[in-house]
Amino acid sequence: MTLLQAKDITVMAGGERLLDPVSLTLPAGRAVTVLGESGSGKSLLAQAILGTLPRGLAAAGALTLGETRLDPARPQGSRALWGRQIAVLPQEPWLALDPLMRAAPQVAEVHGLVAGAAAPDRLAHQDLAALGLAGAGQKYPWQLSGGMAQRLAFAAARAGGAPITVADEPTKGLDSDRRDDVLALLRRGLEQGGGLLTITHDLALAAGLGGEILVMQGGTVVERGPAAQLLAAPQHPYTRALIAADPARWPRPAPSGTGATTPVLCAEGFSVERDGRRLFAPLDFTLAPGRILGVAGPSGCGKSSLGNALLGLVPHRGWLWRDPEVPKLGLQKLWQDPPAAFPARLTLGQGLDDLLRLHRIDRDRVAPLLDRLNLAPDLLARRPAAVSGGELQRIALLRALLLEPRFLFADEPTSRLDPVTQALTIRLMVEVARERGMAMVIVSHDRALLDAISDRVIRLEPA
Fold first, then answer.
1. Taking every annotated instance into account, which residue ranges of this chain make up the domain ABC transporter (predicted)?
2. CB of 77 closer than 8 Å to CB of 233
3. Can you tell me the distance from the alpha carbon of 10 to that of 61, in angstroms, rounded to the nearest whole number?
């Protein structure tokens, strides 16, 4: 049985075509996975199918969900099917969750109002426990780590029982164990006869889901085929580059040093507490200019809290010394969720202009950084919601580098980037760290990435 059929789906912005015609069929029990770089059109395809394109964009083509025919040009017709026939796992959980509602009630609400379940509270707690969130039911989204918020959004989206799921980066920000848990849940839905359309940068997830893979570049499908066949023997040069950019294939770094003797910071017996509970076992480390410290560990173990404490944003336990010669603006952070770090109502260029004016930064420094980060200058005319997650993360990096930091805490800086863009961005970050003597602490769930770029990797263990 065919659950979804899309024929010649296109997206236009005025007279400009952003997405060339794409057709796909989603049978019951099968997965279709879309791979590609940021801005390649993956999310536009999903939004056109869902009827959620941003204002100013228009879709065309033909769409059938089960027995229901829909016109992508009139997206309001699909709204009655949301949650009941087609569910969405969003790329940005912070924007999908209600910040004023606790975790369990958000899931229970979907069970009760959408699925009409008789015991929504009990089902919500079962869902959370299955995702490793048994103790988080009474917490608000802002009290959860990025990975925990992602799992909460997953539980809420799936609670309506829709046979079709559109998943936009469902494993973003998750450690390997939690990624395997989500993969198992997605596969369970397929085994029960559901259909799955996934937008992802995660090659391991694409391989685990099987089915068909579509590879997109510049709004065009450049290669498609069965998952196992395409990943084992890619034909298009871009597909080969995408697979080769997997961090597991990166060369390991040679020992490096800047010759500097004064460290940027030192820590002994360093830890962080929350609600009277120590998050991780005490740490000892020294970070010199130009050196990179990788931090790994499961979701919720305190990785972000560690970096915030190093920056002086939250209290800490133990001894911490920062070089007093480093000014306050010399300590910078790349946030795990860049949408939360940009004013939603200002264009990116307006926000950048404010930064340049406030700190008297030469405007001529912007263009070279845009070029190094592979960012089109016209992106600055858009608001944050109108650019891809990967583009927004790179703009956040540009903004931080303009302040010439001596210490940078990068919290999952590539979680929204496809493998090719991730490799380019990480290479730039490492180059800048070495060139400028910038010390860096980088958090990632990808141990292969940390091993490939870090001078030392520490794994946080629960206290």
1. 4-243, 265-463
2. no
3. 6
